[in-house]
């Protein structure tokens, strides 16, 4: 069995440029809506004269969701959370007022709490945003007159969350599509990819198809859950959409197998046309029924199985007792190992250390302009050294690009802005660019948020257009300083390696593969095929992160080549497992991989 060919052979710069401009499904619309929401928050901040309006703008970019239902729920949730935050801030400000040591202790305890919640609870990534706002409010509290310090700090902390939450609640339903619509667009995109794979794609399209395949059905199922909450579609329609989500993953895997095995040369035009017709129906908020069984050559098993999957694309089969998935247990607020796994506490200690070091540096230097280093610590903290190393390049490049845009706009654009409309247009254009990058491929998405971070913190100082170059310079320095401090702390103290969980993920992957081969229920078979792709994606990602770690850490990874070999074989077995004629060979391959793992 030959591995899927996904190497384009192009230079790194060409690949990055393709990732930046790749027209992924829904990327343009989601970016436009996110940029509009950020601009709306800035407009409200200018009207109410909220200081540091960059913070609510950043919160909006961080928590804005694709569909209207999730936006409303998230907006309500963060506005409820702010009540507890305000009560906490009220007590802390009065306790730490004119008590520098008490303020340091409060910052330390708050940072530890929010970093721990971000690692060991369902509150992530909201925990980091809440920690950022609370600690930021304490840090800047002494910059307002003493007599009104408590009132102003509480008011501004409230507005930092209230404004983004209100925009999400009000504007989300108006400008965002329904979750069912987004789900159907995702299915349509996968069907078009299937047609592309049967029409001799180029290398970049293969990369895109592989990345889409690894996403599985998880994202679509989350949209389906939101669609159920809306109570608009009938339960039968939702059942058809759920099966379509699983079938789209199976169809994409089979189309990729057909390309890999050279069967696409035997594929008739009828396959591509059927796939594109089905995609067109899903794009218009419908779904196909009574799809005819397409004919495939005898020596093309992948095409034959693809025809079967398309024939029953939207029809969920009733699960038999032996194939029915076990009932999911409701999980609590904390993760199962929240208080037994020391990694959560270590993560909180490292994050707290980075925040305190940043606080001491700008306090000792008496350089309040670089207080953005504290904000950066909450934004860039990641569990493993592999993630820190992988994303450090994205952070630095994103911060430099965003800072360059911010400084260039101050020099060349701000002096010519004489009304709020022109100022908001500038905010919208740059937010659109940052959102476009943020909503792209995972390999560049992190840089998008860093572009928004650097630009907002550079250009949103006072009210209206700013010409203060010093503030932009200081805040960019603070961002870069926070990046380096966080990386240094997390890579030095209790460095957590991405290598550790790979063995467990490999075992989980092989267990799901065995279930996929053993099941006789067609609907359950496609469901497990989607689950396999998600498990495979998490394992491949852990391998990439482990390989990105420093040499002294990779020296303690003796089984890394074995895990990489198992993952490559599992990627092929996951596709071949969909073909009945290859199941015996697949079972043997799974046994060989289990033996290599043990």
TrEMBL record:
Source taxon at top rank: Bacteria
Pfam family, one: FUSC_2
Signal peptide: none
Ribonucleoprotein among keywords: no
Subcellular location: Cell membrane
Lipid biosynthesis is among the record's keywords: no
Primary location: membrane
Membrane topology: Multi-pass membrane protein
Designated name of the protein: FUSC family protein
Organism: Acetobacter lambici
